[in-house]
Amino acid sequence: MDSADPLDGYSVTEVVQKAPLAKNDIYGSLFLYLQDTILKFCKQVKRLKVSFQLFQTDAVRLPSMIQQREMSKTRFDRIEVSNIGDRGYLGPQMTLATFGPLLKIKAENPHATLLLLFLNAIHEVSTAEDHLGSMKPEIERIRKYLELDPAVFRNRDGMKYSADFHRFNDGRLMFRDFDKLFSRFHQECQLDKIGEAVGLEMKWKNTIIEPWPMRIKKNATQDEFNFLLGSSHTGSERYVEWRSLA
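Above: the chain sequence. Below: its structure as tokens.
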């Protein structure tokens, strides 16, 4: 994810499954998790004929650099661009226009996919009305996992300095209707229209990664709630997969 903390790039639930004897050594767990992942990757690479090319450049310059390297006819089966499609960076329109032409068409590979991650879409379209209007159902759900002393709400002056209040408020966001808010983002950005303009269509059912991999599940356990609340993730991280129209 978009953070300097290495733990934020991985699912805490998966990381803790590699916990050493010191069960609370979270970074020790991350070390073992990454060690296992990298070893699996190395073993897989040994069985394949594969090469890597690394470029250090602005993302929008990458297509021209590929042409300069005499790779102008190269198209790709999978393109993953992290969260540069967020409107604070390139935005969805420029991202699709830049990388869409590099994706294989259906005749070459019907499964070729351009993968975008939206970290900020939900926050960009959320309003004060959304925050207040969803308060009751969110509080009802979060109280299953986290209680807050009513006295905290009565002390309005001290509330903004209360760690318990901020923990409760952050946890409440995890239960927001992200589908409704992402639909608003979809309409504001006209994702269908800008995709069609560059020969792409949005998959309505993801085939590589689930749309909301970090979102808390309906019947989440207390541990699953605690792991998400203790991480930098909110559950609003949204993956969108695109494929060629041709």
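The beta strands are 78-80, 113-118, 200-202, 238-244.
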